[in-house]
Design goal:
Layout lengths: L5 E10 L2 E11 L4 E5 L6 H9 L6 E6 L2 E2 L4 H5 L2 E4 L11 H11 L7 H12 L14 H13 L5 E5 L7 H14 L6 E2 L6 E2 L5 E3 L6 E3 L32 E5 L3 H4 L4 E6 L2 E6 L1 H6 L5 E7 L1 H10 L3 E7 L2 E6 L4 H14 L3 E7 L4 H9 L2
Helix pairs in contact: 3-4, 3-5, 4-5
Length: about 375
């Protein structure tokens, strides 16, 4: 038995001369949120398609939930929920009809699909919109519907390919709260900003789909009862939602604030994972090497900083600049830059060392 829910070894996939995935290794533990980060064309989507069995690798091995994806693809897929970049629901069908379709395609029986669909729609916040056509949903609601469809069969592995691209910040926050609830382990509290699990709720359990706390002494399963539509007289009275193991999540994202919420992050470039660690450990690689520079005009400050012999990179962060310097040289740069800025006729308002953020790490890794 493996300790990992996902194991991928030396994955390779080429399209002509383009090595989209070039020797990727992935190990994802149960209950883990793993973030795959990289620029467009880095190989994130191709990697996910290989894991779900939508593409055959040129080389390598993939094991998902104990199944060899190359030999037992249907068994492996039964454990996977997949949300692609593009909205793939049927726009002429209602929200409930869409999720029912995916439920029945995946084998849910007639007395199971309705309560299960309603349970999931309630979890993602779409139960009040179950009769609205999918084509009339907002971008954020469409992503929630896609997530609901991916969850309807209670997958153990959830693959999310840039699920929040193009949606507003509030919807992104709501979506991530749903993801964090999914991976909540019984007896743990999940920080909704960092995703860190803290063992603080002694004697309680967290429902892995709703995030609600319930006393562990109560062994009864939660009942889910909904009125049956007139067109579907199905015997679902006293339906019991079975307990579900914690879900693992592999998510690709272009947003560094989202990457910071993952338990581990892998940076992809040119089909390879060039760095992998926890967000805090990745940030620590640049400790003492990032300065915050603010003044006027900002373009002059950027030019002057770029000319300094010990500055590796200058990146804009709003009305400020992050200046990455060589190791153990920050104090020298802080002493030198004010004179260089003054000689250029610019005004310096702030120059100080700051803790690095993941954007700084991403920029540094992208320059390799």
């Amino acid at each position: 038995m493996t300790d990992y829910l996902v194991q991928a070894t030396n994955l390779k996939k080429s399209f002509g001369n383009n090595h989209a995935v070039d020797g990727v290794n992935l190990n994802i533990a149960p209950g883990e949120i793993y973030g795959l980060v990289g620029s467009d064309g880095a190989g994130k989507t191709t990697t996910m398609r290989l894991l779900v069995g939508a593409l055959l690798p040129d080389a390598g091995e993939i094991n998902v939930c104990g199944y060899d994806v190359l030999k037992q693809v249907e068994q492996a897929r039964s454990q996977i929920g997949y949300l692609s970049q593009r909205f793939s629901m049927y726009e002429d069908l209602t929200v409930l009809e869409n999720i029912r379709f995916f439920a029945e395609v995946r084998g849910l029986k007639s007395n199971e699909w309705l309560p299960r669909c309603m349970e999931i729609l309630d979890f993602v916040g779409l139960v009040d919109f179950k009769d609205r056509r999918a084509g009339q949903l907002s971008g954020g609601m469409k992503q929630k519907l896609g997530l609901a469809s991916a969850l309807v069969t209670r997958p153990r592995l959830l693959l999310l390919d840039e699920p929040t691209t193009g949606v507003d910040p509030v919807t992104r926050q709501d979506f991530w709260q749903l993801v964090i609830k999914l991976v909540s382990q019984p007896g743990t509290h999940v920080d909704t900003y960092t995703g860190t699990q803290v063992d603080t709720y002694t004697g309680t359990q967290v429902d892995t789909y709703t995030g609600t706390q319930a006393a562990t002494t109560d062994q009864s399963l939660r009942n889910t009862q909904y009125a049956i539509p007139d067109t579907q007289q199905l015997p679902i009275t006293n339906y019991h939602s079975p307990r579900t193991p914690s879900v693992s999540v592999l998510i690709s994202t272009p947003y560094m604030d989202e990457a910071s919420r993952c338990h581990r992050v892998g940076f992809m470039k040119a089909g390879q994972i060039i760095a992998e660690d926890t967000p805090s450990n990745l940030r620590s690689r640049l400790n003492g090497r990032v300065l915050q520079l603010r003044g006027d005009p900002i373009n002059t400050l950027r030019h002057v900083a770029h000319q300094d012999k010990d500055v590796e990179d200058v990146a804009a962060f709003g009305d400020k600049l992050h200046v990455r310097v060589k190791e153990n040289i920050a104090n020298d740069v802080i002493a030198r830059l004010p004179k260089e800025i003054a000689q250029a006729g610019a005004a310096l308002h702030e120059l100080r060392p700051i803790p690095p953020v993941l954007e700084d790490v991403f920029i540094a890794l992208s320059e390799r």
